[in-house]
Amino acid sequence: MKKIAILTSGGDAPGMNAAIRAVVRKAKVEGIEVMGIYYGYEGFMEGNMTLLDVGDVGGIIQRGGTKLYSARCPQFKEAYAQDQGIAKMKEAGVDGLVVIGGDGSYRGAMDLVRKGFPCVGIPATIDNDIPGTQYTIGFDTALNTVIEAVDKIRDTATSHENLFIVEVMGRDAGDLALYASVAAGAGAVIIPEVDFMIEDVIARIKQGEARGKKHNIIIVAEGVMSGTELARQLKENAGITTRVSVLGHMQRGGSPTAQDRVLAGRFGSYAVDVLLAGKSGRAVGIRNHQLVDYDMTEAFKNEHKTDLTLYTLATDLSI
Amino acid sequence: MKKIAILTSGGDAPGMNAAIRAVVRKAKVEGIEVMGIYYGYEGFMEGNMTLLDVGDVGGIIQRGGTKLYSARCPQFKEAYAQDQGIAKMKEAGVDGLVVIGGDGSYRGAMDLVRKGFPCVGIPATIDNDIPGTQYTIGFDTALNTVIEAVDKIRDTATSHENLFIVEVMGRDAGDLALYASVAAGAGAVIIPEVDFMIEDVIARIKQGEARGKKHNIIIVAEGVMSGTELARQLKENAGITTRVSVLGHMQRGGSPTAQDRVLAGRFGSYAVDVLLAGKSGRAVGIRNHQLVDYDMTEAFKNEHKTDLTLYTLATDLSI
Amino acid sequence: MKKIAILTSGGDAPGMNAAIRAVVRKAKVEGIEVMGIYYGYEGFMEGNMTLLDVGDVGGIIQRGGTKLYSARCPQFKEAYAQDQGIAKMKEAGVDGLVVIGGDGSYRGAMDLVRKGFPCVGIPATIDNDIPGTQYTIGFDTALNTVIEAVDKIRDTATSHENLFIVEVMGRDAGDLALYASVAAGAGAVIIPEVDFMIEDVIARIKQGEARGKKHNIIIVAEGVMSGTELARQLKENAGITTRVSVLGHMQRGGSPTAQDRVLAGRFGSYAVDVLLAGKSGRAVGIRNHQLVDYDMTEAFKNEHKTDLTLYTLATDLSI
Amino acid sequence: MKKIAILTSGGDAPGMNAAIRAVVRKAKVEGIEVMGIYYGYEGFMEGNMTLLDVGDVGGIIQRGGTKLYSARCPQFKEAYAQDQGIAKMKEAGVDGLVVIGGDGSYRGAMDLVRKGFPCVGIPATIDNDIPGTQYTIGFDTALNTVIEAVDKIRDTATSHENLFIVEVMGRDAGDLALYASVAAGAGAVIIPEVDFMIEDVIARIKQGEARGKKHNIIIVAEGVMSGTELARQLKENAGITTRVSVLGHMQRGGSPTAQDRVLAGRFGSYAVDVLLAGKSGRAVGIRNHQLVDYDMTEAFKNEHKTDLTLYTLATDLSI
Question: What number is the ipTM of this complex?
Answer without folding.
Answer: 0.96
